[in-house]
C-alpha cells in the first residue's frame, strides 16, 4: 500500500451494490466513501467502485466538489500491484466511465475546458478553433458544441477571448446565446485550428486546456477602464504560450502534454496585449484576397484597394512590403492614405478632385493626386527604382512633420513628399491589379531593414497616450424602465445633457440639461418650445453627456453666454439671448473648434439647427426633419472660442441653447462616408469602439438614426431610433460596431444608399494607446 495507507482505514472493502449494473450510480457510490484531507488541505472522497463481481474494481480519490468533475492522483485497478498507481491528476469522471469504471455525474456536458485568444483574418469561411466542436461558421457566427450564436464575429482588427468551461462558451466574458443547445461532446486526439477539412485563418495566443470544468473566466478580466483585457490563463492540463518559434506546440504547464505541429504556423509578436496592424478586409474596393494573417494581398482580376487596420493622427511610423509577384504593368500602388477622407467606392487615382493619398508606383514614380491626376501623368517624382519580385518597399510616414519617404531595399527614393492634409488619420494603403502579390510587415516580425531613426512599428502599444482612458466618465448610455430612466440617467454625472426616448412606444424624444434646469424639456422630433418632462411608459434609453461644471458667464463672443463646459471631453452647453440686430457670435468654452453644433430656440416653435463640418459651407441640417442639407444658414464657421448664429434661427429676444462638441481622438469622431447600397457597406475608421453613433443622409431626405451598444450588445447592431420621429425602436437596418469603427451591413437608405452621410460617434473603449489596454474585437 502507499505510504498514506491510514487514509483508507474507514472503507468498507467488501461491500457490493447492484452487481447487475456495469456502472454504479453516483448516489450509491458516494455512500461507500469516507472523507479525508489530502495535499493543500483539499477535502476529497476516498471511495470504491464495487459494480462488478470483483470485490475491488477500483480504488479512487475524488474531489469533494460535486460538480467539479475532477479527481486527484491515486487510481488502482484489479490486477495492479497497489504500489503501481496511475497518476491521473484531475482526471474527469467521464474518462473513467469511458473505461467502464465510474458513471459520469448527471448534467455535465463535456469533461474538459479551454481558453484561448483569437484574431480573425479570413472572414466568411469556416474557421475551426477547437477541432470540429468550436469554430467560426461561413456566416461568421460562432458554433460551440451544438449551439450556433446569434451574434456574428467579423471584426478582424483585434482579438477575441474565447472560453469554454464545460457548460457554455464565452466571448470576451459574455456567455454566447443562439440557436440549438450545448450537447455532450468528447474529443479523442483533439486538434487546434483544424477540423479534418478546414484550417483556422488568423492568430492564436495563450491556449490553455484542462480536464474538468472551471468557474472562473480564465485568461481575461475587465480592467479599471472597463476594457476586457487579456491576462495569462492558469496552466491547466496543457498550456501553449507559443514562446518558441521552433516548437510552437510545446506545453509549458509542466505536465508534458506537448501538441504536434502541422503546416507552417509563424510566430509573431501580434498579441492580445499589443495588437499590430494588418491589411483591413473590411475596407476595400473590388475583390482583393488576403492571406498570411491579412498581411499578404493577392491581386485580383480587377482593381483592389485596402488600408491598414490602425490609423494614427500623429507620430512617425514605418512599414515594409515585400513584393512576391509583379507583372511590371505599372499597376501596383503602395503608399499612405488619409483614411477618414477616402470615399468608399472610389480609388485614389480615380478621384481627381481629392488629394487624400500619396503612393509609390511599381514603375518607379511617386503620385499624390495633385495636378492633372493619374490618367494625365500627374506624378510628382519619376525615374526611381522599379518594384519587382523580391524587392522590399519601405514606407516612412512622418505625421509630425507631414511627409512620407519611400525606400527600395533600404535606399531612399527621391525626396520626402508633403502630405496634402494634416490633423486627420493617415495609414498605409495598397492598390493593385491582377498578378501583383506582396506581404506587408507592420512590425509584428523583424523588419528586413532598420527603420529610420524615431520611426516605430504600427501597433496599439506605440500609439499616443489617449486623454480619456475611460469614456464612460464622460458619456454613457442607460437602459431602464420609463419610470426610472430620468433618475438613472441623472445619477451618472452632476452636470449633464440627457436625451431620453421610450423604446417601446411612440412618444417624443426629451432633451434635458442642467443649465436650462432639469424640469425643462426640448423635443428633438418637434419644433416645440420648452415644455415639461413626461415619464415614458415603456422600456427606455438615456444618452448622457457630462458637461463638467456649473454654468459660468462667457464673454468670448459679441453676445454674452452662459456655458457649462467639459473641455476634456469636448462638450459644452451654451445658453444666450438671441438678437436680430445683426450678425453675432457666442462663446462656447471648449478651447477647440466644435465639429458638431445642435441648437434650438427655447422660446419659439422653430426648427433645430445642426452644424457639421462635412456639410457645404454655411449649410445646415434640421434635427426634427429628414430633409437634406439646406444652403445659406450659418453666418460663418465656428472657431476655438465662439460659434456663429443662424440667420433664421430665432425671434428677437428668444432664449437659445446650443450643444457643442469638439473632436477628442480616441473618444469622439465627427465625419462623413459615402454609401454603396450594399450589405457589404463602407467601413468607417474612428480609432475607438463606438458606444453611440448618430447618422444622417446629407444628400436626400432620409431619417436621422441613433445606434448604441447598450441596446445592441452584439453584431449586427440593428436596434435604432429616429431623432426626428416619435416612433418606437426598429431593427430593420444594421451596422457592425467594431473595435476601431463601424461598417454598414444594409442596403437601407437611412444609412447606406449611394449618398453622402454625416455621423457623430462617441467611444465605449479607445482602440489603443500607450496608456490603455487594446480594445478587444466585437
TrEMBL record:
It comes from the Bacteria. Residues 256-447 form the B30.2/SPRY domain. InterPro entries: B30.2/SPRY (IPR001870), B30.2/SPRY_sf (IPR043136), ConA-like_dom_sf (IPR013320), DUF7483 (IPR055906), SPRY_dom (IPR003877), Terminase_largesu-like (IPR005021). This is B30.2/SPRY domain-containing protein.
